[in-house]
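Why does residue order matter? Because the sequence determines the fold. Keep that principle in mind as you read this record.
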Amino acid sequence: MTIVKNMKENAVIVGVALKDTSREELNSSMEELKQLSITAGANVVEVISQNLASINPSTYIGKGKVEELAKLIKEKEIQLAIFDDELSPAQASKLEKIIECAVIDRKGLILDIFALHARSRESKIQVELAQLKYMLPRLRGQWTHLERQEGAIGTRGPGETQLETDRRAIRIKISKLEKDLDKIDSQRNVRRAGRSRLKMASLIGYTNAGKSTLLNALTGADALVEDQLFATLDTTVRRIDFDNGSDILLSDTVGFIKKLPHELVASFRSTFSEAIEADLLLHVIDTSQPNFEEQMEAVTSVLHEIKITDKPIIYVFNKMDIIDSAGRKEALLKNYPDGVFISASKKTGLNELLIQIRKLAFGSYIRKTLSIPLSEGKILASIYNSGRVLNRIEANGKVEITFEASPEIVSIIMKSIDNAEKPN
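Structure:
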């Protein structure tokens, strides 16, 4: 077998269209797989697909197609075959023996990209945990592609050292990583408690939809922006200041994708927790993609998986500046009358978006100014914890405090003040 050193791996991507899969759906999925492969550092030299009534339980694709694939791999000196759907451990092992080439599936590829882009300690732990959970049922001694260069696609991160350990050692490692994430999650909860009086909005959306660009445009942040899939793995939280003294926190999250590995959803629970705890969601959509509605459905599917089903959502249709069809723009406006249409990179449409954010976050809030004795620390604390303080002046043992809160919270605070003023 060819040993690859210091060069991009030649790859072939392989997909199957079942009887309920349209040609457009297959093409879209294969194009996305190609982009994922390029992001991972592969040189995609061939694309192969096959129409099947059902997946071959032994080799995923049919016997004749396997033979065709083996011949192609030999002729074009291909080092890696990337399959669009998840392969069973037995399928991957059998394919590797027949085609004499490394084999990974979409799930393994996505995990590899996450390993490539992990920067913080938290994201590295999350990726390693996901990889180990994915790897555990796939342990076998015939992973011939480990002979390739260190850091080859499909072997980055813990895969380079953990594949040769036994299942018990991996389970021990998984347990330790889960405890490490629990500690990080607890620290995150402490930080979140410190900002509990502030409303929170969370950016969600398909990978590369422009979430980080929008975060920067709205807050003046400098979050990493790259034209790559899964460029952002770590949560970034920044503040939006409104003209009247109101403010809201805005968090960025890891991008979603079709067939997002369950191991990643589970491992990135603390990252997704920003969306879980948010008061509202901004679903950022890349309107330049012809299959953007499929991407919207994929995001909705992940939201259901992490049990986010009852939050207000603003649908933010991004990249309107690169749509060159007036008819398509009109169709978008007609089909999504409640959407907000913007270009995050050109900073157009942001005022309308800010209006919608403020309306959903604070529409039911009322403003109140009260004079409260400094001795009533519990009442003052409840205002800070449940409302949004706009102004505070201390004089003569009292605090004149102006704040905004929901009618229910204001009513509770007023009752607390009345009870405090009643003689014992």
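Confidence is low (pLDDT under 50) at residues 1-6, 141-149.
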